[in-house]
Amino acid sequence: MPGPGESDQPSSTLLTGGAVVTVNDHGTVHDPGWVLVNGSTIADVGAGEPPDAARRSAETVIDTSGSVVMPGMVNGHTHLFQTLFRGLADDKSLLDWLKDCIWPAAGEIDAEAAHAAATLGLIENLRSGASTVIDHQYVHADPDIDDAICQAAADLGIRFELARGWADRNYHPPLTESADTVLERIEPLRQAWHGSCDGRITVGLAPLIPWGCSDEAMVATTAAARSWGGHIHTHCAETEIEVEMNLKERGLRHVPWLDSLGVLGPDVQLAHSVWLDETEIQLIAERGASVVHCPVSNMYLASGIAPIRALLDHGVNVALATDGAGSNNRQDMFEACKTTALLQKVGRHDATAIQPEEVLAMACRGGAQLLDRADDLGAVQPSWRADLVVVDLTSPFVAPVHRVPSALVYCATPRDVIHVLVDGRFIIRDRKLTTGNEEAAVAAATAAARKVLGRAGMPTRLLND
């Protein structure tokens, strides 16, 4: 079951010659700079030329001239099964999108299709500079789906959290489970995967949406996750109508409702959080919960503009994400970074609303905090995990570069990614995936989409059909 481990690690790698955007507490940029990786951790970082001792100790020396070393980004919220459905339900609001596409198709996904979807989706994430992915996985028509997705992550060597989703009411029947079923199924999943692959894979619990979850099940699953140190991941205040639904039924907006149940806390990841009022922002800050911002999806579904500037000003940890390919339609973290900045500027009518350095901090440090890894992940600094991305700054899409953080947020694209390291291991090297076969992944996902949509009685509209 497990994938690549410590035995696959190079003894030492030196990245030298280009810029280094550390995303550390001081926002340090070395131009030029160097990074020495020893096994799975960063041994040292510096400006200018590396010392002779660093060169002598390096088993491999990579010339990064004309490029930049940055921390691997964290895609804090996606639905990998939706890789099969990209472009299938454009131009719909959230509830119509669910009813017309996601519900009928997702109910037909089996473990084989889920593995194919996850493999391709994770490859796309890696190619866009994401070394870590949190998958809000709520499709369980086949009980082996979760294992299949975790195996895809293990095989590729990416850092990964499976946020095991559930809904126990008001949802599409094939995707609905009782709390007892969820708690029964989570235990073998936790035992098999939580902390596996040298700690790269973890498991949490993920109530799907407030209107799909009963109070009793929320309390029970939260207690279960906290019993093993798992995280609680949920959609929150994504659309105005969902907030109104909760007010009508429970008399509370989403955040106060979560707090009333004892759910809200530092281990909680609130995806979207678009329709928050001032009291909710303050409450999130007081409880230490995190917000996961999905700007492209919020635009795609016309959900609204999340109050990211206000959240940051209140000290809330904010991470970035793509959301699923069904409502994006990509897994491109560079696009998420750029859209985050632009959407805050246009929404506030303020060109100074957010800076590139803040965006990179959300994409890297903010995502690491979701996983309780704020002290060893998301920055390029000694003793931290060697999750690194090397980005070409000489391509026609980026050059000339006047300010490296700006180039990363506003110019860089997945085609500019040269190397991706996770725990010091090259997952992408010289723009080539080292842990899988991209052509085979595309073919498998295309075949899976055709089968799933055929079983659902939906037109495929696939290329060459």
Walk across the major sheet and give the strand order.
Answer: 3-2-7-16-17-18-19
Number of domains: 2
Main pleated-sheet profile: 7 strands, mixed
- The tally of helices reads 16
CATH superfamily of the largest domain: Metal-dependent hydrolases
Shape: globular
Strand content: 15-25%
E-strand count: 19
CATH architecture of the largest domain: Alpha-Beta Barrel
CATH topology group of the largest domain: TIM Barrel
Distance between the termini: 35 Å
Helix proportion range: 25-40%
Question: What value does the Rg take, in angstroms?
Answer: 21 Å
- According to CATH, what is the class of the largest domain? Alpha Beta
Residue stretches low in confidence (pLDDT < 50, at least 5 long) are: none
The overall pLDDT, averaged over residues, is: 96
Structural class: alpha/beta
Would you mind describing this structure in some detail?
- The protein is of the alpha/beta class.
- The protein folds into two domains: 6-70 and 382-433, Urease, subunit C, domain 1 (Roll), CATH 2.30.40; 73-370, Metal-dependent hydrolases (TIM Barrel, Alpha-Beta Barrel), CATH 3.20.20.
- Helices cover 38% and strands 21% of the residues.
- The chain is built from 16 helices and 19 strands.
- It has helices spanning 52-57, 94-106, 111-127, 145-156, 179-193, 196-199, 215-227, 240-250, 254-260, 278-287, 295-300, 308-313, 333-348, 356-370, 404-410, 438-455; strands spanning 12-16, 19-21, 29-30, 33-38, 41-47, 60-63, 67-71, 73-78, 130-137, 159-166, 201-207, 232-236, 268-272, 290-293, 317-320, 388-392, 417-422, 425-429, 432-433.
- A seven-stranded mixed β-sheet has the order 3-2-7-16-17-18-19, with helices on one face.
- Strand 13, helix 10 and strand 14 (290-293) form a beta-alpha-beta unit.
